[in-house]
Amino acid sequence: MVFATSTSRPFLPNQTHRNKPTTNSLSSPIISLKNCKTIDELKLFHHSLAKQGLDNDVSAITKLVARSCELGTRESLTFARKLFDVSYGSRYMYNSLIRGYASYGLCEEALLLFLRMMIDGISPDKYTFPFGLSACAKSRTIRDGAQIHGLVVRMDYAKDLFVQNSLVHFYAECGDLVCARNVFDEMPQRNVVSWTSMICGYARRGFAKEAVDLFFEMMRSEDVRPNSVTMVCVISACAKLEDLETCEKVHAFISSSGVEVNDVMVSALVDMYMKCNDNDTAKQLFEQYGARNLDLCNAMASNYVRQGLTKEALDVLSLMMDSGLRPDRISMLSAISSCSQLKNILLGKSCHGYVMRNGFESWDNICNALIDIYMKCRKQDTAVKMFDRMLNKTVVTWNSIIAGYIENGDVDAAWETFNTMPEKNIVSWNTIIGGLVQEGMFEEAIEVFRSMQGQEGVDADGVTMMSIASACGHLGALDLAKWIYYYIEKNGIQLDVRLSTSLVDMFSRCGDPETAMSIFDGLANRDVSAWTAAIRAMAMSGNAERAIELFDEMIEQGLKPDGVVFVGALTACSHGGLVQQGLLEEAMQLIKSMPLEPNDVIWNSLLAACRVHGNVEMAAYAAAKIQVLAPERTGSYVLLSNVYASAGRWNDVAKVRLSMKEKGLRKPPGTSLIEIRGKTHEFTSGDESHPEMRKIEAMLDEVSRELGHVPDLSSGLMDVDEQEKRFMLSRHSEKLAMAFGLISSNKGTRIRIVKNLRVCSDCHSFAKLASKAYDREIVLRDNNRFHFISQGKCSCNDFW
Fold first, then answer.
1. For the chain, which terminus, N or C, has the lower number of CB atoms within 10 Å?
2. Beta carbons within 10 angstroms of residue 378's beta carbon
3. Could you count the other beta carbons within 10 Å of the beta carbon of residue 441?
4. SS (H, E, C) 69-135
5. How far is CA 692 from the centre of its chain?
């Protein structure tokens, strides 16, 4: 729509449209027009005009058109338009109909009528422009609104307060906050509507800080008092900031300023305090204003659900029903989400029944929540049936079903559904990437991330990069880790504490503790997870002293260590040789005196220390604890078996392995990865299928015969003869990978290997000998730590 070139003659700002003279413009039917409240009454009124011969009376028809538009129904607007089309349209008639169309949402009709008005040579006035801009704001037609702005300037209405307010509102609603602010700043005077339009524009577009700052500027700079609409926008902005101090200042202003407090404002205040985790103040407001306010109850319940306080959410909903309030679809969304978190399928089905009886199933958010609960409660078939029945599948719906498949371990179905999605957003990509990482499909997750880069309009966020960092860490790919860090900085992805912690963990797993600690040192606000990652980074690299220092620093900061932190500290002691034989009893006492119940991970750390020092009895005790807490944990059986084997207690080894067999557990085969010229090669213990196997065997023989490597037969944890042990040790996956690295990479190049199990002492000795003989640095990561091996020495000091 082009306004500037559509007029047939120049605009005359002061032009007055001449109506045809009438004689009965104040007759009684017009006086009673204000009593018409339905379309039938308006038509009856028009019929009475015709009977009196007044159906061509311009003044009467103008007022009838205006009243029909005020009624605001589709039928009344159609009736008004019919009257308009057969009459001699005045500016007032045009304004009435444009306003009626815009208010009802018939924005295109409003703008077409605006255009026709200009073609008819009737100049818009200070009312026409706001009505037209309202249509542009509702339809988000920024181009048409900008043209109207041009007309405003040309016709000298740019200084009119009513028009300026409409321009600010239009630009803010269309998301052009720069233009909105320009108009706002140029206003010679402003009223509460001006400030509210700009503040709400900021708040609704995610610029919460700007909204709050502008509010306080309003309080300082001009004698304008906010109204309830202003305050609701400011309160919602405060909720997004999650700044309790600012929230309290805004609340204090409301209490002292005399602003009328309505139900909407109270609900917004409750939401604000709960977003800031000040549940006590929110609860006080809730109790003060009563539970008979549906919006207030919904605000309380939905925030409790968000915080994971499902019992409290259900209590609010129960209180609401006891007060005689009937749950609406928002209430049911909170109820279903609570049931989903609790995995309470019976209550969930009851909610589903209520939803169906009250016709809420047509709301896609409700259906998405029901899909979620059925998936979480392992009722996948029911969830899929709901999904298939939905006519309006939004991207959120698709994401819900994919997330459900992943939660149930059905990655194939998740992947198939992902590929058939008609539209994907960042949540879709994050869900499938996270699912692949969860299932240990790390290389596949990286490939999906790379394919995501080619999608227009989809930019990776912090959640994406956390998953990718996790995948990279498990692969131990340092070059990829460096690229990921560069990608995050290049694309301006915010390094919050969660993403930073993921990067610390990634670099520590990739054998770069220096970069890991550099990221940790740059963190301003560190939570327990961040400290844990740093302690683990030092533990994995063998820097036990620094790990213990970090543990002590965390305690001094007033943070309460959890089980994972204790694991990190114990692991550091074990890796650094700080847990000598005499100190194992102290470690046991530390575990027993912990302020939380020791979990299987903590007992496994003690078991690992027992393996290093050969304490068979304590190892058996720790293993027994693990088998109660996590009977499916294969690694604990393997560790205990190794302890027994090292002590020559083959009967006990047999018992452990028989126990594993009876429980259906199987030790995974040892596998090692090595990257050569951008290609990853995987070796499995005992497997001789690699195409370079002859050269690999030759290198193994060279190290054994010419360099004098003597196999450590105590590492052969099978009850077989000596010759068989020698052969089995020579085919360990890390040895095969090292030999391949030596023959396939340039001299002096660092060799990096990632193994899925603990490295055995024989392979460790082999690596130390090879590093000195061939002047190579070998970085070997097993499932517990890093070994930085150079010139015949290892960073672990032979403790791991």
1. N
2. 14
3. 17
4. HHHCCHHHHHHHHHHHHCCCCCHHHHHHHHHHHHHHCCHHHHHHHHHHHHHCCCCCCCCHHHHHHHH
5. 46
Strand partners, 752: 779
Lookup: tokens for 323: 């007060």
- Residue 676 parent element (H or E): strand 671-676
Question: Rg of the Cα trace of the chain?
Answer: 37
Report which of 524, 532, 542, 525 is spatially closest to residue 502, judged by C-alpha positions: 532
Please provide the DSSP assignment of 43-76 as one string.
HHHHHHHHHTT-TT-HHHHHHHHHHHHHH--HHH
Buried-state track 59-79, b at ≥16 Cβ within 10 A, e below 16: bbbbbbbbbbbebeeeebbeb
752, containing H or E segment:
strand 751-755
**Residue 549 neighbours by CB distance under 10 Å:** 14
pLDDT of residue 725: 67
pTM (predicted TM-score): 0.67
Looking at residue 2, its pLDDT comes to 47
Q: What is the pLDDT of residues 449-487, one digit of tens each?
A: 999 987 777 889 999 999 999 999 988 888 899 999 999
Residue 781: phi and psi, rounded to 5, are -105, 120
Contact predicate 473/495, CB 8 Å = no
Residues 6+ positions from 373 with CB-CB distance below 8 Å: 336, 339, 340, 343, 345, 348
**Strand-pair category, 778-781 with 751-755:** parallel
Angle of helix 497-509 relative to helix 528-540, nearest 10 degrees, comes to: 10
Give CA separation, 677 vs 474, 479, 673, in Å: 20, 11, 13
pLDDT of residue 723: 65
Beta strand pairing call for 786-790 and 793-794 = antiparallel
CB 469 within 8 A of CB 503: yes
Residues whose CB falls within 8 Å of the CB of residue 463, separated by 6 or more in sequence, listed in order: 426, 430, 434
The predicted pLDDT at position 721 comes to 53
Q: 683 and 692 in contact (C-beta within 8 Å)?
A: no
Predicted pLDDT of residue 343: 92
Check: CB of residue 30 under 8 Å from CB of residue 59: yes
What is the signed CA dihedral for 517, 523, 529, 533, rounded to 10 degrees? -10
Q: What contacts 422, CB < 8 A, 6 or more positions away? A: none
pLDDT of residue 543: 81
Q: Distance of CA 792 to CAs 494, 574, 576, 729, 770, Å?
A: 42, 21, 18, 20, 8
Which residues fall within 8 angstroms of residue 466, CB to CB, at 6 or more apart?
A: 498, 499, 502
Q: Is the pLDDT of residue 570 over 70?
A: no
Helix (H) or strand (E) holding 794: strand 793-794
- By the 10 Å C-beta count (0-12 exposed, 13-18 middle, 19+ buried), 307 is classed as middle
State how far the Cα of 661 lies from the Cα of 701, in Å rounded to an integer: 35
The number of beta carbons lying within 10 Å of the beta carbon of residue 778 is 23
